[in-house]
Amino acid sequence: MASGDPYVLPGGLPVPEDDGAADHLPGLGLPDLTLPSSSGPVNLAELARERLVLYVYPRTGKPGRPMLPGWDDIPGARGCTPQSCGFRDHAAELAAFGARVAGVSAQSLADQREFAERNRMPFPVVADERLELARALDLPTFEVEGLTLYKRLALVGENGRIVKVFYPVFPPDRNAEEVVAWLERSRSGR
């Protein structure tokens, strides 16, 4: 398929379907789980004590490095960098709603730090190489090239509990805008 540039979403990407794999999440508590991040160790329950926007993604790409074979053919796989940059670009709006933001994938801490630095992420980018969050919340994953990766989703946690889940997320570059719009609607009671 088109461009190997991780910042650009090519046309014609397959749209992920709602397989029901996140239907159980609303109402669940965020686990007391501390994971390494680009900003040091973070505890997800602590981040969600008031309001947390946690976006979960398969893996970010690096400019000049090839993507995994068939990556663009997997529904929902492509777009982690545009999704992350969207949350970066909307960080001030999310903060105005009292939301802390964090991103998480199964990538290594070294990968997360490099990505966060290269893209000037103002929030923690969490490394969950052992998929501890996936086990704690039964999050959806998929397999590719011998790797188990997260399926893309975003959730809003308030007072330690998940109150909203965005799944499936498509297109990924609009996810942050969708979260901001939901927060605006929930604040105004609509």
Task: Write up what this structure looks like.
The protein has 190 residues and is α/β, with parallel strands linked by helices. It has a single domain (34-188), classed as Glutaredoxin (3-Layer(aba) Sandwich), CATH 3.40.30. It is built from six helices and nine strands. It has helices at 44-47, 80-89, 91-96, 109-118, 132-137, 175-188; strands at residues 34-35, 42-43, 51-56, 100-105, 125-127, 141-144, 147-150, 153-158, 161-166. The chain has a five-stranded mixed beta sheet. A two-stranded antiparallel sheet has the order 1-2. The chain has a two-stranded antiparallel ribbon with strand order 6-7. Strand 6 (141-144) and strand 7 (147-150) form a beta hairpin. The longest helix has 14 residues, at 175-188. It is globular. The chain starts with 33 loop residues before the first strand and ends with a helix. The model has no long low-confidence stretch (mean pLDDT 95).
